[in-house]
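In this notebook, the sequence line spells out the residues, with the fold written below as integer tokens. This is how one looks.
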Amino acid sequence: MYTHRKSALAGAVVLAIAATALTGCERGASAGAGAGAPGPPRAGCPTVLAKARAAVRRAQKIHTTWDGPTTGPTAVSGKRIVFVAQTMTNPGVAGAAQGVREAAKAIGWNVRVIDGQGTPAGLQAAFSQALALRPSGIVIGGFDPRLTSQQVARARAEHVPLIGWHAVDAPGPSKDPELFSNITTHVQDVARISADWVIAHSRGHAGVVVFTDASIPFARHKSELIKKGLAACSGVRLLAEENIPISDTSSRTPQEVSSLLSRFRDGWTHSAAINDVYFADAAPALRAARKKGGGAPFNIGAGDGDPSAFQRINSRQFQSATLPEPFSQQGWQILDEFNRAFSGTPASGYVTPVHLSTAANSRGVTTWDPPGYRAAYRKIWGR
């Protein structure tokens, strides 16, 4: 009788665990391949691995010539641009704003940056302030235009052209919201290379944690694409998906990382995050657990490539790779797109190719700055 009851209890526990693994997770909780130590090794994926290695090699190449626009309208004079920033504490936003400032000096325009402080109310106030300045054009710098829908509608009514930087999912012109152009890389390419790097680096055998911010549709979409890419390799196991809002990374990430280390131990070999900032905040917990900076878990940031990310990569301190945005080059492109808008010509349609930076190819720099664009844009503008 005791044996039978013990067996029945054990069966109930197994069923309960299975049910828990199949249910959704609360905001901020882990999702994915269940809790506890990872199961037995899964088969590799030789065909997928070969393709991933080839894609990673291509993404790591440093091109020596400019592949962007070489023709366009000459510079229109006397324009005033306002860059409404999501928050200037975001290194990516700040980098793009600095690129716009640098390009403005070259083309001879005036630029004003207004910090939205990272809140809906702050962004609405900043956008309203921008409109009150009666500018020639406004940059939506790193935030969803739907947060400022009234101000966007007013800009449209006043015929003020809008250009986004990471404002919507896709690069190029946008109809809803109406943007002359949106400057960003293809999220599909960024996610694909992130997954390819994990597959190639692990030789097709990895236990992976994905860090995301499900409150941002763009970020959530990116992490879904990363998971899809990882799933292409049968030897790669998704251990967990950690949903931590970017605004909470400093307070939440160390605790979550400690929990992950306790659950998965050495089975956690790689991580991919929608932004490098997660690894800045993961480092203290990894260090406290006596993990080596150049060892597992090996981490790749699928976005930004701010100076601190390059510093971690170059010093091999808890980050192995990043897919950086060329902030300065994108700032110059923003002004070139405005010049096309003012001249009545279409957007250039140029999209920056995805680049993968590691300690092997970064050459000690702290930003990704492709060659040739400054001279190319100056020639176009006649400056």
Observations:
- The first helix runs from residue 2 to 22.
- The mean pLDDT is 89.
- The chain has twelve helices and 13 strands.
- The longest strand covers residues 236-243.
